[in-house]
Amino acid sequence: xxxxxxxxxxxxxxxxxxxxxxxxxxxxxxxxxxxxxxxxxxxxxxxxxxxxxxxxxxxxxxxxxxxxxxxxxxxxxxxxxxxxxxxxxxxxxxxxxxxxxxxxxxxxxxxxxxxxxxxxxxxxxxxxxxxxxxxxxxxxxxxxxxxxxxxxxxxxxxxxxxxxxxxxxxxxxxxxxxxxxxxxxxxxxxxxxxxxxxxxxxxxxxxxxxxxxxxxxxxxxxxxxxxxxxxxxxxxxxxxxxxxxxxxxxxxxxxxxxxxxxxxxxxxxxxxxxxxxxxxxxxxxxxxxxxxxxxxx
Amino acid sequence: xxxxxxxxxxxxxxxxxxxxxxxxxxxxxxxxxxxxxxxxxxxxxxxxxxxxxxxxxxxxxxxxxxxxxxxxxxxxxxxxxxxxxxxxxxxxxxxxxxxxxxxxxxxxxxxxxxxxxxxxxxxxxxxxxxxxxxxxxxxxxxxxxxxxxxxxxxxxxxxxxxxxxxxxxxxxxxxxxxxxxxxxxxxxxxxxxxxxxxxxxxxxxxxxxxxxxxxxxxxxxxxxxxxxxxxxxxxxxxxxxxxxxxxxxxxxxxxxxxxxxxxxxxxxxxxx
Lengths: 297, 272
What we know:
- The structure holds two protein chains of two kinds.
- Chain A is mostly helical.
- Helix content of chain A is 73%, strand content 1%.
- A two-stranded antiparallel ribbon of chain A has the order 1-2.
- In chain A, helix 3 runs antiparallel to helix 10.
- The two termini of chain A are 34 Å apart.
- In chain B, strands 1-2 form a two-stranded antiparallel sheet.
- In chain B, strand 1 and strand 2 form a beta hairpin.
- In chain B, helix 4 packs across helix 10, helix 10 packs antiparallel against helix 13 and helix 10 crosses helix 14.
- Chain B is globular and about 75 Å long.
- The model of chain B has no long low-confidence stretch (mean pLDDT 87).
- At the A-B interface, helix 1, helix 4, helix 5, helix 6 and helix 7 of A face helix 1, helix 4, helix 5, helix 6 and helix 7 of B.
């Protein structure tokens, strides 16, 4: 019996071992390696033997580079503006359209589409839509009698274009999350508020929104993390240009590594991005930890 | 009054659907136009559709090879992720063991690692291990990227299976692995479906890691897109045809399995 009991103690480890091994090889070890590489001055394509120990030089260089700060600024502006627009639009639409109607499932299916399509295709589609000479958006402007714009060639407009693209792709996500939250909440509380004579505005802002706040908070953080991770849409749409107007931080890392070919320096940038995203994801965990056991409270 | 409200409600839903669909429709429309029609400064809804762009990406673009790579890599990493992820989620949901808590927190933090952060170190490590430019190298990194979400999702489903079922099976003489295989797995099929869609989507759609970790023989479809962007400009007809081929499987999934997709999307938050 004691042999069987001893065997039983190894059962959970047998279940987790393969997944843990893959996550160590594909995620944890590369992250450690990013920290390690960030301490060396190493050019792409040269043997590792030529790498020079540089200590924290890469971090010093990073903090002194105006391009880094420009990219951080662009990224923060993008995350704040795009995510705010998506949250406000998505929640407003959910509040307006929360009443279950026949055929809602078909509509929801359509709303899921933009986020299922490859980001690379999304970038492609919107680069075409925004094209200065033959893009449908300029066709529409001409048809309306307005002046066509060189959307992707002018810094302010290019930034607006990537925000519009992100809003198109991700507002439906906020909408679906808010809708699920509204339809899952305790309807009797809203009824009670209405019987007590609460106005539409009072029910919305004092009852409904506070009730679904935890879900909205997780949605917000998930959107922010994703917005920080973004790279592929702008890779095709603008490649960060004109100048650095749309150079999100992920793309900045990519360019440092595979265009400038400075692997150590790019690793230092990676460490910075990782720190930013990890802080955000720890925030998600304090709001809602899905792996917490029910009995642990 | 209620009637007008309903009409407005549907009008709003139709308008929003049109906004979601229009860009996708334009993608498909552009892929069946000739270059001359695409570059025409006058817009026209009427034109004779042509499959010339598709013919040319299939004939000269090696698209068949990229398609094969995409299918093989996506399927392999989906099967692997589901198998490993479900096993791990089962252990987290049903056993108390030393290291459970660090594993669950570690998994949740790793879920948000940006692919751009992995790009450089994975390229360096894969080169050292000799799996750069190979399909298995890409499968490994996609499986690792997908595991945290899959564990998260499957944990929720396994937790809802009544433990009495497993106890009864154990009394009837099922070993721990049999319980997992014959009791748990059949009951969490909806979760597996949702996890499969999201895993497949990442592997099918991912661009940057595939672009870095493959060569022209092992390249996946999204990474081949860059072939059509040259210094002289974009080959719009061809790139849109390739884009349609990339967008097709996720479009099909959306229409076939919208319910599972919404399960997966809301799983992270609605439980909290």
